[in-house]
UniProtKB/TrEMBL annotation:
Annotated organism of origin: Streptomyces thermolineatus
Entries under PANTHER family matching the protein: POLYKETIDE CYCLASE/DEHYDRASE AND LIPID TRANSPORT SUPERFAMILY PROTEIN, POLYKETIDE CYCLASE_DEHYDRASE AND LIPID TRANSPORT SUPERFAMILY PROTEIN
Signal peptide start-end: none
Domain Coenzyme Q-binding protein COQ10 START: residue ranges: 10-129
CDD domains, alphabetized: SRPBCC_8
InterPro entries xrefs: COQ10_START, ORF3, START-like_dom_sf
Higher taxonomy: Bacteria, Bacillati, Actinomycetota, Actinomycetes, Kitasatosporales
Protein name per UniProt: SRPBCC family protein
């Protein structure tokens, strides 16, 4: 099992960051390789990914969800992974988003990619795209002003 930990500060209130992150259908907008995420039930999601031409589908259960604080998950089919995203209020308009994920590479290609830091770079890039998405959306709409 390999572990990845990455974090990023976003210039939006904690509630805004949490609310955007829990819009699972929007994940393809900032997660490279994620084709689709369907919310099957309140606690189950179905994922379709395509990374380096390899398509995978799997289900994941939300194991813990505390509004404005954390979302944890564990895969129930497909690649073995579990993780948690936590949201830390820095002030009224800034939030630290921290992602911790455990995963088991499948096969030689995944193992080599993991050893070369592919997953860590992927997560870092996804968080940077999340920051860009949420901050741009707030500037365009003025939606984040006044939210606490």
């Amino acid at each position: 099992m390999s572990q990845v930990e990455e974090s990023i500060e976003v210039a939006v209130p904690v509630r805004t960051a949490y609310n955007q992150w829990t819009q699972f259908a929007d994940f393809p907008r900032f997660m490279k390789g994620v084709e689709r995420v369907d919310q099957v039930t309140d606690t189950r999601t179905h994922w379709v990914t395509k990374i380096d031409g390899v398509e995978r589908e799997f289900d994941a259960d939300i194991t813990e969800q505390i509004p404005d604080e954390r979302v944890a998950w564990r895969s129930t089919t497909g690649p073995d992974q579990a993780g948690v995203v936590t949201f830390h209020r820095l002030d009224d308009s800034r939030t630290k988003v921290m992602l911790q994920m455990d995963h088991s590479p499948e096969g030689l290609l995944d193992t080599v990619g993991d050893k070369l830091g592919f997953v860590r770079r992927q997560v870092k890039g996804d968080l940077e795209r999340f920051k860009e998405l949420i901050e741009k959306r707030g500037v365009e709409t003025g939606a984040w002003r006044g939210q606490v």
